[in-house]
User: What shape does this take?
Amino acid sequence: MTLAPELRRQLSRMEEARRQTQRQLDMVDRQITRRMTALIPGLLPRRTHYRRGKAPDPGAFLERYRSQLAALTAERQPEIDALSRKLARQEQAIARFLDRQGEAADLSEQV
Assistant: This one.
């Protein structure tokens, strides 16, 4: 299947728009990761020694970490959802475009 130059440019623009949306989604993920990395020192237990022979609870840190991560993700969830929907629409549009062009190429070969 060979595409005319005009159609190749259109496909290229569609693919570039999809890549841009994917980059935006990746950037949101990196921003959440960076904020969580900055919050880790505040989540660690305050004392490093045993108090009255009792070891610090290792699950407490994970619980605080998960709750902070959930809060940060929930804060950005509308943006993540919108970008995910946009990415899905772009991928569907590219697939439909390729299907249509493939059918058109098949018809032109038959003539």
In short: Residues 49 and 55 are 8 Å apart (CA to CA).
